[in-house]
Design a protein that fits this description.
113 residues; alpha+beta; four-stranded antiparallel β-sheet; two-stranded antiparallel ribbon; 6 strands; 40% strand
Length: 113
């Protein structure tokens, strides 16, 4: 769950670059499939701060800490042409697509104290 924004940075439904991409998706589905396929496999480096959570138990408190080290996404080239959707409403951007086969590997560090 993402935190709520304190103020709207942009109204994505009227943001010109988003409108251009929406038209490209609608009018050129095969080139968009090829373009998305160029980034496969996609390597996302560490992108988050550690998340610490205290868990109270009957024998004491446990500190549970997690950190996402990397995300590896394979299969983006299997995008189904015409399935890519990009919609903006207010400060929210939604992206959806259908793929034949996508694999996601997540490397995490988890510790319990």
């Amino acid at each position: 769950r993402f935190p709520n924004s304190l103020m709207e940075l942009a109204d994505w439904s009227v943001y010109p670059p988003v409108q251009v991409v929406e038209h490209m998706i609608a009018e050129r589905p095969l080139p968009m499939k090829q373009l998305i396929g160029l980034v496969s496999p996609l390597e996302v480096p560490q992108f988050s701060s550690p998340v610490d959570q205290k868990i109270n138990t009957s024998v004491g408190t446990i500190l549970f800490s997690t950190l996402v080290n990397f995300v590896h996404i394979q299969g983006l080239e299997t995008l189904t042409p015409g399935s890519l959707k990009l919609t903006g409403t207010g400060s929210t951007m939604k992206v959806g697509a259908d793929f034949e086969s996508v694999g996601i590997t997540i490397g995490m560090t988890i510790s319990l104290d």
